[in-house]
Design brief:
immunoglobulin/albumin-binding domain-like; 45% helix; 9% strand; 7-stranded beta/alpha barrel; 3-stranded mixed sheet; single chain; alpha/beta
Length: 573
């Protein structure tokens, strides 16, 4: 007899780093996540299945722009060069330790040997086990039923702030097509970029008449996407405090909450239909999510775990443990992998017990078997929380072996077995500070959106003149590259990084570069004077979505105002 279902969702995303710098921002960020998160995660999935016969049943979101980078030969070769540089650096530490002039140098030598073996194992896995093909490896375990792959907007564009349905559709059409091309099957689910959602709304059309702009879920349904995820406060109401991302690829950000919403009467123990399309939504369980990602109370902040920020000044190795949140970097104690792994065992025991009690208590109080869905940035595990992938592995193993009352399933499997009963209207929302759009639209980023909207309009105007693919191959290439640049300049990463000051200048430059390339190509198309060499140069850098069809930007006819009875559920109970 089961007490309920558990869906473990990992959202994998990085900006487009290809040939756009190395360090501190650029390709090396991708290589770090490949070595510390993506390869270890695949190893954990494969070891559970091939050595223990356990299917991980993880829902793994891989954004299309990240998938394209993992599939890129330049970046594959760059990753090997990165691993070789790490191995060479730590090899020099093996030579300089033990050093009688350095305190605890014998332990430092032990750690250097630990990292030397660790990086060599990652390289061996990448080159020999996965043949440099991480996409093929994820596809293999997808086809074996170990994981479910979900899609997203092509370049993680911030959906609610795009001005036209053609551009919104292009993000999800190119995204969905890319996932199908790389992983061999259509993704049923998607991660809304930044969990950003908006309802449908009325507006005044060019003819002066009232028009209706469809809700986000209509675009999803038009691209055969059946479900997405959201934050707990979006489903439950109340205050969004505790629902922002605290640990993740971009670090901490200032918190500015919205006024507290009235409680909706709904909870996250079920999935729900959206009112305007046959698309389901499931919300993250706040208690089960908080236990992991909270900087103050979550597992990753334990003093025995590896310190992310302090690195050796010669080799760049992380030789220290967190020690405590209040310990200065200069006073951190040395890392001990054995103690850290023991703590993973303790934390995974605690977490699996927590999951059981949450579901069991819900069943006792309601008489129903509930859903626990937790969602995290994949990069939290391994990259930020070095021991995190081992935590995932132990949680899966312990649930499988010791708590069979919890049904482990992917998001798609859950919805097949437990289709939603109720319909819910969710509000405008995101995972960002306060649960709204401030992170992406504020005094630091407001200058970007008129540019984005102008590019939206310009590409529609240009494409409208070429409903039929031109026989001129140079023009055809230019139209397709224009589409790529438009997608790339829409990436939500650029305003996010500007707002958080994590990489303000880098993000500003990247946005402007894509706008300049877009404008250059648009000028060439409109003038009828396309420079082949200039186009080749841009194509060699921004080569994502190789089979893109620019006609995805053909204008979408303005919609009619729907009948009010189509609204199946009020915002609040």
């Amino acid at each position: 007899m089961t007490v309920g279902s558990f869906v473990f969702m990992l959202h994998s995303h990085l900006p487009y780093y290809r040939m756009a710098g190395m360090w501190p921002f650029g390709e090396e960020n991708l290589y770090e996540c490949m070595s510390e998160t993506y390869v270890p995660l695949l190893n954990a999935i494969s070891e559970l299945y091939e050595e223990e016969g356990i299917k991980a049943k993880l829902t793994v979101g891989i954004t299309p722009i990240l998938a394209e980078q993992l599939n890129d030969e330049h970046l594959k070769n760059g990753f090997i060069e990165y691993l070789d540089s790490r191995i060479n650096s730590v090899a020099k530490d093996l030579e300089r330790y033990p050093d009688p002039k350095v305190e605890h140098s014998q332990h430092l030598k032990y750690l250097a040997k630990y990292y030397f073996d660790w990086f060599n194992h990652i390289k061996d896995s990448f080159v020999n086990k996965y043949n440099k093909d991480l996409i093929g490896a994820f596809k293999k375990y997808q086809d074996l039923g170990c994981i479910e792959i979900t899609t997203s907007g092509a370049t993680h564009g911030f959906s609610p702030l795009l001005a036209t349905d053609s551009n919104l559709n292009a993000q999800f059409k190119v995204g969905s097509d890319t996932t199908k091309r790389l992983f061999g099957k259509k993704a049923k689910g998607c991660w809304l970029p930044e969990c950003a959602y908006r309802q449908g709304y009325e507006y005044i059309g060019k003819d002066g008449q009232k028009k209706w702009r469809p809700a986000i879920e209509v675009t999803l349904q038009n691209n055969d996407i059946e479900y997405f995820f959201t934050e707990s406060h979006v489903i439950e109401g109340g205050n969004s405090v505790g629902n922002r991302r605290v640990v993740g690829i971009y670090g901490n950000i200032e918190y500015i909450p919205l006024p507290e919403r009235e409680a909706t009467g709904y909870d996250t123990y079920s999935a729900y239909w959206l009112p305007d399309a046959q698309v389901a939504v499931m919300g993250r369980n706040d208690r089960a999510g908080f236990q992991v990602w909270s900087a103050a109370d979550g597992y990753p902040g334990d003093g025995l775990y590896r310190e992310f920020h302090k690195k050796d000044d010669k080799s760049g190795m992380n030789y220290w443990r967190i020690t405590s949140p209040t310990t200065d970097l200069g006073d951190k104690m040395l890392y001990d992998p054995v103690l850290a792994m023991n703590q993973v065992n303790s934390n995974s025991d605690h977490y699996t017990t927590l999951l059981y009690h949450l579901l069991n208590d819900y069943k006792k109080s309601t008489g129903k078997e509930g859903l626990l869905m937790v969602s995290f940035d994949t990069e939290l595990y391994g990259h930020w929380w070095f021991e995190g992938v081992e935590f995932i592995k132990q949680v899966i193993r312990k649930l499988n072996n010791f708590i069979p009352e919890i049904e482990r399933c992917t998001a798609g499997e859950y919805l097949e077995k437990h289709p939603p009963v109720d319909t819910i209207q969710i509000p405008e929302s995101s995972w960002g500070q306060g649960g709204h759009f401030y992170v992406w639209l504020n005094h630091l980023t407001e200058w970007m959106w008129p540019i984005i909207h102008a590019c939206e309009k310009r590409i529609i105007d240009i494409v409208s003149k070429y409903e039929k693919i031109p026989e001129n191959k140079l023009l055809h290439r230019a139209l397709n590259q224009l589409a790529r640049e438009n997608l790339l300049l829409q990436s939500s990463d650029w305003p996010f990084l500007i707002t958080t000051w994590q990489a303000k200048d880098y993000a500003t430059d990247r946005f402007n570069e894509h706008v300049e390339r877009f404008s250059l190509i648009a000028d060439m198309i409109e003038s009828g004077n396309i420079n082949d060499e200039e186009l080749k140069k841009i194509e060699s850098i921004d080569n994502c979505f190789p089979v893109i069809d620019y006609r995805v930007y053909l204008p979408i006819e303005e919609g009619k105002i729907p009948q009010q009875e189509a609204k199946l559920a009020p915002l609040y109970k």
